[in-house]
UniProtKB/TrEMBL annotation:
Pfam families assigned to the protein according to its UniProt record, in alphabetical order: Pectinesterase
Catalytic activity as recorded in UniProt: [(1->4)-alpha-D-galacturonosyl methyl ester](n) + n H2O = [(1->4)-alpha-D-galacturonosyl](n) + n methanol + n H(+)
Presence of the UniProt keyword Ion transport in the record: no
Enzyme Commission code(s) on record: 3.1.1.11
Name listed for the protein in its UniProt record: Pectinesterase
Signal peptide: 1-26
Lineage of the organism: Eukaryota, Viridiplantae, Streptophyta, Embryophyta, Tracheophyta
Domain of life where this protein originates: Eukaryota
Amino acid sequence: MKRTISSSAILLIALQAILLIPTTISTTKLVPADISKVKAWVAKNINDFNHRKANDSKGIPRIVLDELLASAEDRLRLIRVAKEGFADFTTISDALETIPKDNKRRTIIQIGGGEYREKITVKCNKPFITFYGDPMDIPKIVFNGTASQYGTIYSATVAVESDYFMAVNVAFVNSAPMPNVNRTGGQAVAMRISGDKAAFHNCKFIGFQDTLCDDRGRHFFKDCYVRGTVDFIFGNGKSLYLNTTIDSVAQGTGVITAQAREHVTEDSGFTFIHCNLTGLGNNTYLGRAWKQRPRVVFAYTYMGHLINDEGWSTWKFPERKGTVYYGEYKCSGPGSNSFGRVPYAKSLSKAEAKTFLSMTYINGNKWLIPPPRFP
């Protein structure tokens, strides 16, 4: 009897060959000021961890990949989801159900193009999951949950509560209408990321108020797009956004960030490097003091006309002028003009900015790996 190998098995074998050697991004150098050099910088700083030892030839300790992550990357599982054609499942939710609790292997859910109307929660006991879409036909996960129905953070189209999550070439959409300023409960989250050590590559987050709940944990966003109106990147995560477009569609006053750091001891904050701030009008704030001690830094970022002169707001808490950490470093564009900036905003020196310009800001040298590459 002739035995055949399925296309899924062939693809998995190819993926295993590509990903057999766990890699991660070196953090010995700062992100370059010249955006044209960023791609090469990332490529140059990818190191092979399979051949690295605890110490180099001179006995100097090296930073090695997180052991749990390295083990998970050695044993891949591939699940295919598609609206039609060859697939294991037609919904992402059904695919997630097949992943065991306390999962210990990298499970890639390859999602075909089209729109998936689902409300998804990746539970905390299912780590090491990747959502992977085709960059030429990006899948959209869509739901219309609102705060009035579920509560703000539970309105998310996709909520990730597990660690080591990755998404590549996927759009997360909350299709609820733009909130009316005279009506409460219209906040609508597209993505809530509450797990630690998560990465998003070439993803889109589309909504209006409270689009992206960067809730808690360390996160990396690269080559992404975030659309919203008010507080559309919010939460208490410690995250780095690299080469990401942030698009305000506010019809009146807009606010990009509402970082939720409360106490001096909390190690959280948002850093935006080589990002592009675009959108409507001329009255959008970079951030407002939703909580007592927010920490937000923009570096090497283009700020369009949408950013107002003040730049930052304490919202309705003037006493927070002395507790916020709002910094800017070598930004450009009409919205970056320091004339008119609030006095509590910081124009950072090179020494002050250095902390925020490396992957070590999110300890990425221990867990951040490149996305999978399909043959």
